[in-house]
Amino acid sequence: MRYLLFLLFIFSACTGDDEIRILFTGDILLSRNVREEYQHRDESPWIHIKPLFQQADFVVGNLEGAVADAISAEIDNSGDSSSLVFDIKPDDISMLREAGFNIITIANNHSHDLGAAGVERTATALIANDIRPVSYDLSPQFFTVRDVVISVVAINTVPANRDGSVNRVPSVETMQKLRLARTLSHVVIVSIHWGSELLEWHNKNQRTMAEWLIEHGADVIIGSHPHVVQQPEIIKGKPVFFSLGNHLFDQKYQATKEGLIADIRIRRGKIYCNGIVTRTAPQSFFPETVRQLDYKFRPVKTGNLFRVGAYTLQPISLVGHPKYNLRLQAFSNGRKAWSTPPMSVVSVSAVKFDDEPESLFVLENHYSNMDNETGVRPYVYGVTDRGIHARWRGSALALPLIDAQILPDRKTLCALHRGDSFININKTSEETRTLTYQWNGFGFSAVQDSVICADCRTLYEDKDFNH
């Protein structure tokens, strides 16, 4: 018996007990004909899929629609897709939890179908069911599984049906979200709503955006919106699932009844990606697994966690907090040393000034009386065995600030400013300017060095940046 137990232990060690598995599904609808079917059958739409979901550490889906405060008979779901309203009954969100979903992205053109209140109700309902909502505003979200930190960034590039709003790629704000995710996690996954409906191959804009997202930190890209599967590819060494198609939807074209589940495995510092094909029966919208796919993609190396001085910093997302997005926990020699109070972090990096110990350079969102707005504010924090303490708090350096980064020499600060000033504030200014600063022992002073200024401009040279 002892020998058998020993063999079982060895077998389990060799078959990847330390493996982390994440499943991403395509678009999910809890309205129209889908709702009619699960109400009529009085059973979960995931009755065939749940055993698969139980094998994963995380199951992620993209939910199309918004939770209503009361289902209105006046909601019209006829007509073209730009006028459709996908209303969700609050009680139906529990089906997602019961099926095994842990994370739901709500960054798509139907998230605002019931306005900003609908977006808030959807996030609240998901949190109440122990499901993490990930929208663009709530990105990145961080998840830790067996000491591996995974971040998810959700982006919608398809004009919202209600107000036409989109998230820009490229943009400074999207770059900031990716930079924060890349700095604080081993694996960065981007969920993006993009492309053309019912087109079975990706378009040029999808490829261009994928290249930019990868250049700015994405390890895996998961696409949605076309409602049909688009063939995954490797771009710049990273897997891109251009479209997973429908997972639970009521479209009846043959191609829309087949979906793809992205099967992501993280093992021993590498990311492996494959797929699982799903299909719905002719008279049903409930998905069933059909077969597994092996794309033969080369594994992607995971990143490293962020270090400052003797400490490794890990993020803790603050779900549902009205003001702050995360706390940072510091570990030394495998033990938790301290944690920060809740913070509204835009980006974080290590900076070393001359012979001083490393400090933290952090961009945070805060309100200031200087410009009477909530904006990006730079901070320098000293790091000790008791935690962090503010060494310098600059409202926005010399001009209203959009973004700032420490240059590779780790002494020079490059800042992207709006074109206006604190004396003559114009929040709608589309002009920008870059300035460089160096630490003077008490704060940052502007410097005029042609080489440094040129290096600074290259950080923001993308003509398509939109702030």
Distance between the termini: 66 Å
Going by helix content, strand content and strand pairing, the class is alpha/beta
Radius of gyration: 24 Å
Spans of at least 5 consecutive residues with low confidence: 1-15
Major sheet size, sense and barrel closure? 9 strands, mixed
- What count of structural domains? 2
CATH class of the largest domain: Alpha Beta
Count of helical segments? 8
Beta fraction: 35-45%
Describe the protein's architecture and organization:
Residues 1-15 have low confidence and may be disordered. Strands 1, 2, 5, 6, 15, 16, 17, 18 and 19 form a nine-stranded mixed β-sheet that branches. This protein has two domains: 18-301, Metallo-dependent phosphatases (Purple Acid Phosphatase, chain A, domain 2), CATH 3.60.21; 320-459, no CATH class. The relative contact order is 0.10. A hairpin with a 7-residue loop joins strand 24 and strand 25 (359-368). It has helices at residues 2-14, 32-41, 50-53, 94-99, 115-128, 172-184, 204-215, 450-459, and strands at residues 20-29, 58-64, 66-67, 87-88, 103-105, 132-134, 141-145, 148-156, 187-193, 220-224, 229-230, 233-235, 238-241, 243-244, 246-248, 258-267, 270-280, 287-293, 300-301, 306-308, 311-317, 326-332, 335-339, 345-351, 359-368, 373-384, 387-393, 401-406, 412-418, 432-439, 444-447. With 467 residues, it is of the alpha/beta class. Helices cover 18% and strands 39% of the residues.
